[in-house]
Design brief:
The protein is mainly alpha-helical and 366 residues long. It is built from 14 helices and two strands; from the N terminus they run H-H-E-E-H-H-H-H-H-H-H-H-H-H-H-H. The protein is globular.
């Protein structure tokens, strides 16, 4: 009961922080809009699904068309907001803010699980090569679109990320067991190889070089509602699955042998946690590029505040990560006439903060 109260209290407080960050971010830009107008414009943009249909998605190179579910939405509110302000908030600023919140939520949730999985506060979502695999898929789609069968930059990055994660897992698994140390070393080796492939593709990318480099820095400048629709369902579903395994993650902190004696199916649980965390990370990286330090610093910071219990740590870290990326992306797009990649800002803030933690507090294995 006490734990549940703590989860509710911390989560409610972080939801308020996130809502404040969203409103403040939507106010800031070349056209300043008051908070009351922003809130009404956001409510006007709120819509709920009213029906489900069936659409289709094509795979151009293969010539295939596959059915996909589609949702039809209807608006709920109709406040009197100037048309120009409504368009700026709903069509320009809000998609970017929503995508930043989604990606921050995903990276912080996955980072929390990875730190618990590896029992190391220095772990992050990209530790087994998910981000590098996404970068390889994205650069391939940008520089050589004719060889990508998926017809989508996001889908190419998503597939590259998942393929890398499962390749690393397959390399590290022997005899039905996956030692964590072997998994880490396999991730380093695969990342090094993919890094070489990315460098080769960049050398031969021609006019696509700038777009590829911007993507690898983490950039939300071209965000659209379609990006949010691509990532959000995967992130929400994946985080719910991870949340159902927080008890097992707590037990794994004791060591695999102790966890086995306490009734945890260790290898099955490790595979599920690794797979779902990789999917969540892949969904975030596929739409936003490689954004560092969110999945490293935010879970570590929240662990110092709420403690190591993942039943509390996972939801609070995810919400804090959403707020953190909304705030840093607001700084990125408000720094001058040039839209700075948000990955630069997260690194500029996250790296010194993490160094401060290292100097002021001893960082032990979990």
């Amino acid at each position: 009961m006490v734990r549940r109260a703590r989860v509710v209290t911390w989560s409610a407080g972080l939801v308020v922080v996130l809502a404040g960050a969203i409103v403040a971010s939507a106010m800031i830009g070349s056209v300043r809009i008051g908070p009351r107008t922003v809130v009404m414009a956001v409510l006007n943009a709120t819509s709920l699904p009213t029906s489900v249909g069936v659409g289709s998605a094509g795979l151009p190179l293969l010539g295939w068309t596959v059915p996909v579910p589609t949702l039809h939405f209807s608006t709920v509110f109709a406040y009197d907001v100037p048309a120009g302000h409504q368009q700026i908030v709903a069509d320009i600023r809000l998609p970017r803010i929503a995508l930043a919140a989604t990606v921050g939520f995903a990276l912080a949730a996955a980072g929390t699980v990875m730190q618990g999985f590896f029992r190391n506060p220095l772990a992050d979502p990209s530790i087994i090569g998910v981000s590098t695999g996404a970068a390889a898929g994205a650069v391939l789609a940008i520089a050589f679109p004719m060889v990508v069968p998926f017809g989508s930059l996001h889908l190419s990055a998503f597939v590259g990320a998942l393929a890398t994660a499962f390749l690393v897992y397959a390399i590290a698994t022997e005899g039905g067991r996956t030692p964590v140390a072997t998994l880490l070393l396999a991730g380093i080796a695969v990342q090094a190889f993919l890094g070489a492939m990315i460098s080769y593709m960049l050398v031969h990318s021609g006019e696509s070089l700038r777009e590829a480099v911007l993507w690898m820095m983490g950039h939300l400048g071209r965000s659209a509602w379609g990006d949010v629709q691509f990532a959000l369902p995967v992130v929400i579903l994946g985080t719910l699955v991870l949340g159902a395994y927080t008890r097992e993650l707590n037990v794994l902190l004791l060591g695999e042998e102790d966890a086995h004696h306490l009734g945890v199916e260790v290898e099955r649980t490790k595979f599920l946690l690794l797979a779902v965390a990789s999917v969540v990370t892949a969904a975030g990286v596929a739409v936003a590029g490689v954004i560092g330090f969110v999945g490293l610093v935010v879970p570590h910071m929240m662990r110092l505040i709420v403690g190591p219990d993942h039943r509390i740590l996972l939801p609070t870290s995810a919400l804090a990560g959403a707020s953190f990326l909304v705030i840093t992306d607001t700084i990125a797009r408000s720094g001058g006439p040039t839209d700075v990649p948000v990955g630069i800002v997260t690194a500029a803030i996250g790296a010194p903060f993490f160094l401060y933690l290292l100097m002021k507090r001893e960082v032990h294995s979990l």
